[in-house]
């Protein structure tokens, strides 16, 4: 099913550079996910691979060294397909 598995939560926003990406994984096996964060100009400022078998993925992102502003967060599967994402504001 593509319902609950499509839910991506990004919080807190605004934040001071540390935030979480949560994702519901309905697979019973360990899966790999990649979080990419781009700044407003489109530059990739963060990319990390996470692996989990838990129903709820909790992926911590640290962009404290980056400037304040709006960042675009993309959650990708192992093949590089976009699962979901959104925007986050760093204060």
Task: Walk me through the structure.
It is built from no helices and 7 strands. By secondary structure, the chain is mostly beta strands. The chain has strands spanning 8-11, 18-24, 31-38, 44-52, 56-62, 69-77, 82-90. Helices cover 0% and strands 58% of the residues.
Features:
single chain; 91 residues; mainly beta; four-stranded antiparallel sheet; three-stranded antiparallel sheet; 0% helix; disordered N terminus
Tally of strands = 7
Number of helices: 0
Helix content: under 10%
Name the shape in a single word: globular
> Could you tell me how far the N terminus lies from the C terminus, measured between alpha carbons in angstroms?
37 Å
Class from helix and strand fractions: mainly beta
Taken in chain order, the helices and strands follow as EEEEEEE
* Strand arrangement, major sheet: 4-3-6-7
Rg result: 13 Å
Provide mean pLDDT, rounded: 89
Biggest sheet overview: 4 strands, antiparallel
Low-pLDDT runs of 5+ residues are: 1-5
SSE topology:
Elements lengths: L7 E4 L6 E7 L6 E8 L5 E9 L3 E7 L6 E9 L4 E9 L1
Antiparallel strand pairs: 1-2, 2-5, 3-4, 3-6, 6-7
Task: Provide a brief overview of the structure.
With 91 residues, the chain is an all-beta fold. The protein has no helices and seven strands. A hairpin with a 6-residue loop joins strand 1 and strand 2 (18-24).
């Amino acid at each position: 099913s593509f319902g609950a598995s499509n839910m991506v939560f990004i919080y807190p926003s605004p934040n001071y550079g540390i935030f979480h990406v949560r994702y519901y994984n309905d697979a019973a096996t360990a899966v790999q996910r990649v979080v990419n964060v781009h700044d407003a100009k489109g530059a990739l400022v963060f990319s990390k691979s996470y692996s989990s078998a838990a129903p709820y993925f909790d992926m911590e992102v640290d962009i404290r060294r980056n400037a304040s502003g709006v960042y675009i967060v993309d959650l990708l599967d192992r093949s590089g397909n976009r699962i979901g994402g959104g925007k986050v504001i760093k204060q």
